[in-house]
Amino acid sequence: MIAAIEPVIQAKDLSKVYRMGEVDVHALKDISLHIKRGESVAIMGPSGSGKSTLMNILGCLDRPTSGDYFLEGVEVSGLSDDQLAGIRNQKIGFVFQSFNLLQRTSALANVELPLNYASQPTDGRDRAAEALRAVGLENRMKHRPAELSGGEQQRVAIARALVNEPAILMADEPTGNLDSKAGQEIINLLLKLNQERDATLIIITHDQKVAAQTQRIIQIRDGMLEENQL
What we know:
alpha/beta; 10 strands; Rossmann fold; single chain
């Protein structure tokens, strides 16, 4: 008998409440979902729907007010800040709309940065170079962000997300600052890495064309799941 594969992400009844003066704002309301290892998923919703709040919790950047969140079988919502930082560094690679690159350092140094935080300097330069090769920037390693196009800067950000070989790639509006051609190239690259590396890919987006290229779409509105499309 073959054992069932445990989801890489499993959330049950997640809620998030923010206190705004004397008013409680319910950003998430009893969200339950699971995401399988190696799956590509889009989380969609209008502005203010709660999709960014959900991403922050799934990415261990924030904690739920209530509910349970298991990452690779480990309940993480009650962990300390240092423990959450360690999980983010080891298990999750983030790609943001605004690239978040250090402007005064090379592409190679930007990609190497997470390894320095993880105290893994011995082969950091080689691993960073390999990550840049994986995203097609082997000839741009010494260039600073200002010397790169928007699409190339996002590729550097993806290489930085890959360098620790995370179980999950989490991309928050990764095409938002790019033209349609460069944006599609980035989505193609993320899907390629998802397939080749068996890394779970979660894309937060409002773009239906982007979402349609993933295996599953999770719709969120007013802090609640609307429907899952298989």
